[in-house]
Amino acid sequence: MKAKVVVLGNEKGGTGKSTLAMHLIVTWLREGKKVATLDLDGRQGTLSRYLENRKSFAQKNGVTLPMPDHIRIQNVSNEILFLRSQLERLGNDYDVIVLDTPGADTALTLEALFQADTLLTPINDSLLDLDVLGLVDGETMRIKGPSHYAERVWSVRQKRNLMKKGPLNWIVTRNRLSPFKNKNRQTIDELLGGLSERVHFKVAGGITERVIFRELFLKGLTMMDLRENGLHMPLSMSNIAARQEVRALAHSVL
Predict the structure, then answer these.
(1) In whole angstroms, what is the distance from residue 34 CA to residue 101 CA?
(2) Verdict on whether the full-model pTM lies above 0.85
(3) 134-160 b/e with 16+ CB inside 10 Å = b?
(4) Half-sphere exposure of 239 toward its Cβ, with a 13 Å CA cutoff?
């Protein structure tokens, strides 16, 4: 299989997995890569709704927008077997296969981690989100050890090793970063840096908080679409910086 399987995963909800996934998908599409996507969140299906909004916007406005080949895993008798069959079917025809997972520990999510070449875990810039990865001592503000999600990834790595599947590349990125350097940001910097060495993940450049990321959802657009294909939308310095952040992250993942 030539396709790189990229999984957006975090057991905590609300970290922006689907929005980040969409921006990476469009970045890779606009760079000429063939992209397939699978939405593993059968209940919420945010990535699927994002793509539906995108298709609707393109039709209503008479514009052409790059789209991935998309599958939503929903109402199938055996989700794990279905996922495996789809990865096998798509593997030789695409450059990237993106799996968007729900914010929960499920058998399907576990299978996605096992199948991944790269796991991308976005976290909001807070101690609450960091708690999913590592346990922090409130007195000393030092990492006491890995938390439940880091332990889950470790167990998947062990299984992959036994099955001789190869190493899992784990990348953690900070989402909704404050544009200003402050004490909280410095604290997360230090804790995340120390934790990355203990549980073996890379820390990628983060994505700064911007309202426009949320506003674009209803149109199905991303920052990478602005001023493309006849979309003459305002492109501020902040928007240009956001595009550069997304591109940098996309290139660090592949």
Answers:
(1) 20
(2) yes
(3) bebeeeeeebeebbebbebbeebbeeb
(4) 14
